[in-house]
Design goal:
By secondary structure, the chain is of the alpha/beta class. It folds into two domains: 177 residues, 3-Layer(aba) Sandwich (Rossmann fold); 72 residues, no CATH class. It contains ten helices and ten strands. Helix 3 packs parallel to helix 5 and helix 5 packs parallel to helix 6. The longest helix has 18 residues. The two termini are 31 Å apart.
Length: 264
């Protein structure tokens, strides 16, 4: 579903501040893969996600989604293939609009607009059924402004909106990092449920090693713009934070230096 072929991204090329963020990275995600990506600060994980989304143009290589080369497509044109949830809960929704209005926009993304009423009774029925899956009581609050909701509720709605049209690829950009631990656990539980039920191919960036191990069927670790570990199947199920750190040290010859990841 996703092919990243020999992708390189360099910031400030040719200057004293030159930084190779992605160094000839190649990876293939099969249909339905739920891949978690972990790494220290500056490892390249966020740049990888932003390169796929089209936020950053890459310097070399190709990015292919479901057989379509999207390397040259601008970010807005990639929206027909990609659903995305950002780290900031305030980013994915319009605060001054009702819950149902936000969901209507998401449902119609990439589709032609007509002159009929934007939201009808059948739409509301669909929205209520989707919101029930969150188990947050939001199905009875369709006319509530999203800005009045908690960060966790907004992030859960954003996740629902990003997945409701069954995108070919779902990108999760540290989408629980700004939430308190209890709320983050709830949103992650909802994430796993939606990804599993909808069989969505998913790439999730996280700073939390335990979350990276617990969720998904495959784990990738990055360091200095390269993928240094790619673990899946039974090997991933047996993985612990301790042996993940040991593997990082053995391969990189360095000590994993991200307090944020280790203390989460």
């Amino acid at each position: 579903m996703l092919e990243i072929k020999n992708v390189t991204k360099i910031f400030n090329a040719g200057t004293v501040n030159e930084k190779v963020a992605l160094d000839d990275v190649s990876i293939t995600l099969n249909d339905g893969d739920f891949v978690t990506v972990i790494g220290g600060n500056g490892a390249g994980k966020s740049t990888l996600l932003n390169s796929v989304a089209g936020t950053f143009p890459i310097d070399d290589g190709n990015i292919i989604i479901d057989g379509t080369d999207i390397t040259k497509l601008p970010e807005y044109k990639r929206a027909q293939f990609i659903g995305r949830v950002f780290q900031d809960p305030m980013t994915g929704t319009a605060a001054d609009m009702w819950i149902e209005e936000n969901m209507a926009i998401a449902m119609r993304r990439g589709k032609s607009r007509g002159l009929s009423w934007a939201i009808n009774d059948n739409d509301r029925k669909i929205y209520k059924e989707l919101l029930k899956r969150l188990d947050l009581g939001l199905e009875d609050r369709l006319s509530t402004k999203v800005g009045l909701l908690s960060g966790g509720q907004r992030q859960a709605i954003t996740l629902l909106m990003a997945s409701m049209n069954h995108p070919k690829l779902l990108l999760l950009d540290e989408h629980t990092a700004a939430l308190d631990p209890k709320t983050a656990a709830k949103v992650l539980s909802i994430t796993s449920e939606i990804v599993s039920q909808e069989k969505l191919t998913t790439l999730m960036i996280t700073h939390n090693m335990k979350d990276a191990i617990t969720h998904g069927n495959r784990l990738i670790m990055m360091n200095n713009g390269k993928i240094i570990l790619d673990i899946s199947g039974e090997e991933k199920k047996k993985l612990t934070v301790e042996n993940l750190l040991q593997a990082f040290t053995k391969i990189s010859g360095d000590v994993f230096a991200s307090d944020k990841a280790l203390l989460s």
